[in-house]
Write a structure and sequence with these properties.
Blueprint (H helix, E strand, L loop, with lengths): L5 H11 L4 E7 L2 E7 H17 L7 E5 L4 H12 L3 E4 L6 H11 L3 E4 L4 H7 L4 E4 L6 H4 L19 E6 L9 E5 H15 L6 E4 L6 H14 L2 E5 L4 H9 L9 E4 L1 H11 L11 E4 L6 H11 L4 E6 L3 E5 L13 E2 L4 E5 L13 E6 L6 E2 L3 H7 E2 L2 E10 L5 E6 L4 E3 L2 E3 L1 H8 L5 E11 L3 E10 L7 H11 L8 E4 L13 H5 L3
Length: about 500
């Protein structure tokens, strides 16, 4: 059966599993609330009526500017039921960030925390506001709890927008990637299929909900599959390990989705301890590159190799290593069903020869139709129907894909194109180095010069000269860092991606 909307898919699952736990929300390690699929259905319908009472209609953008909570989940489901567009924003955004996003989204309403109300009224006084204190128990602060289940469902088509995810904006103002109902359904069903997510799974959810990873790949997938989601209000290594270690019927987790930085922190927390996680069948990793050494460590510490995957706000999930089959360290895996991939020479625009590196172009049912109110950005991102990812990569003879770098991160020094990832791979092998980030900074002679920010392992005495000598042993001189600085940690966004522009500020 073909479904026109994400809400249709949810209603089918929620009705079939009405008495089953849908979400157990944990705060500070304790049981906060457990909500069944039937209650999730009723509460989201009541919330849909609340939004309609505010005047929200199909196609309106509604911003969710609240902490990770059950209220967030219910509000998102409610907006899908009335054909509105969910716009999730990081609740940590400051005034300057919100000023741009409020103007760009042109929303009809915003759901926010009480402490944010004065800021939003100052920036957008005409915006309809619904305030909710997510620090209070859900039963007390569910804004739709007294409403009737009498919302008016509109006709929703597969091409209608359901979600706008703002990109991280590391090189400019964030862009809102519009995802349609068809995009969201295809993406969730793809994930369910390739990872065999089912109603008997229990997902440990420690990701933020304002990102496509936590909201789309994790939550949508679990809800459509009828799985039980154990949701932590925030990532904390101790609480995640405690949750994953439980083997009772309440929370015997079988699936964990995370970013590389989360795994690194979990392994640091465990130290030499190796508890049993035999009940967890699937460990996934994405949103940022996973070092091969960390791939091996995860396998040793958690008992199974991680399934690396790749996705984007604009495209949903694109590649994954197989659930059943060989997982190659450093590879993002194979293309998901329905996705066509081209590797294109970024200079000539011609298809790259087999095995050669080029820009990855994609075409498939999960790819955004474009950026919200940015026709020029949209036009630049597509070529003859193909979405230009900006990622450089190649494929091996087995059909596994590898990302080499981002085009915008390529350093041009003395007319030579230099990949930071190639240099980082060398630096990261130096004894005593935890991780590194290589960038190009302005140079009068060469245009750009190569520099490196390095994080040492605890107790390491490695120096800049040692790192530069290692690079000279393995790389051409013009690829070697002209300067090395040591930093306590690399600047990252909420999903663990290194912020290259902030790295440059170190120099």
């Amino acid at each position: 059966m073909r479904y026109k909307s994400l809400a249709d898919c949810f209603v089918e699952t929620f009705s079939a599993r009405a008495d089953k736990p849908a979400i157990t929300f944990l705060r500070d390690g304790g049981l906060e609330t457990q909500i069944s699929y039937g209650q999730l259905q009723r509460d989201s319908s009541r919330m849909a009526g609340v939004f309609q009472g505010l005047g929200v209609v199909k196609g309106d953008r509604v911003i969710l500017f609240i902490r990770k909570s059950l209220v967030f989940v219910v509000a998102h489901l409610a907006l899908q039921k009335i054909g509105a567009v969910t716009v999730p924003l990081n609740p940590g955004f400051k005034k300057s960030e919100m000023a741009y996003l409020l103007q760009d989204a042109d929303a009809a309403a915003i759901l926010l925390e009480p402490e944010s109300e004065a800021l939003v009224r100052e920036l957008e006084p005409r915006l309809k506001i619904l305030a909710v204190d997510t620090r209070r128990p859900y039963q007390e602060e569910n804004v739709g709890r007294h409403a009737a289940e009498n919302f008016i469902p509109p006709e929703i088509s597969a091409d209608d927008a359901g979600l706008i995810i703002y990109t991280s904006g590391t090189t400019g103002q964030p862009k809102g990637a519009v995802l349609t109902q068809a995009n969201l359904i295809h993406d969730a069903r793809n994930v369910i299929g390739i990872w065999e997510i089912s109603h008997i799974d229990v997902l440990c959810h420690a990701l933020p909900l304002f990102h496509v990873h936590g909201l789309g790949f994790a939550l949508h997938t679990a809800l459509l599959a009828g799985a039980h989601t154990v949701m932590l209000d925030q990532f904390s290594p101790g609480r995640v390990i405690e949750t994953l270690s439980r083997k009772d019927n309440f929370a015997a987790c079988t699936v964990f989705m995370a970013v590389p930085a989360m795994y690194v922190k979990l392994m640091a927390f465990l130290g030499a301890r190796l508890p049993s996680f035999d009940h967890v069948r699937l460990w996934t990793c994405g949103s940022a590159p996973l070092q091969p050494a960390d791939f091996e460590r995860i396998g040793r510490v958690f008992g199974k190799e991680p399934v690396e995957r790749e996705g984007m706000s604009e495209t949903g999930m694109n590649f994954s290593n197989p659930l059943r089959g060989r997982r190659k360290p450093g590879s993002i895996g194979m293309a998901l069903p329905g996705l066509a991939v081209r590797i294109v020479d970024p200079v000539t625009g011609a298809q790259a020869a087999a095995g050669r590196t080029g820009e990855l172009w994609l075409k498939g049912p999960a790819i955004t139709p474009g950026y919200w109110r940015k026709p020029e950005e949209t036009a630049r991102s597509f070529e003859r129907g193909w979405f230009k990812t900006g990622d450089l990569g190649h494929a091996d003879a087995d059909g596994y894909f590898y990302l080499t770098d981002r085009i915008k991160h390529i350093i041009i020094s003395g007319g030579e194109n230099i990949s930071p990832k190639e240099i980082e791979a060398v630096i990261n092998q130096v004894d005593g180095v935890a991780e590194s980030s290589v960038v190009g900074v302005a140079d009068e002679r060469w245009g750009e010069k190569v520099v490196a920010a390095v994080v040492k392992k605890p107790g390491s005495k490695v120096g800049a000269a040692e790192i530069q000598a290692a690079c000279k042993r393995h790389l051409h001189d013009w690829k070697c860092p002209k300067a090395v600085v040591f930093v306590k940690e690399l600047p990252r966004n909420t999903m663990g991606k290194v912020l290259k522009e902030k790295v440059k500020a170190s120099f």
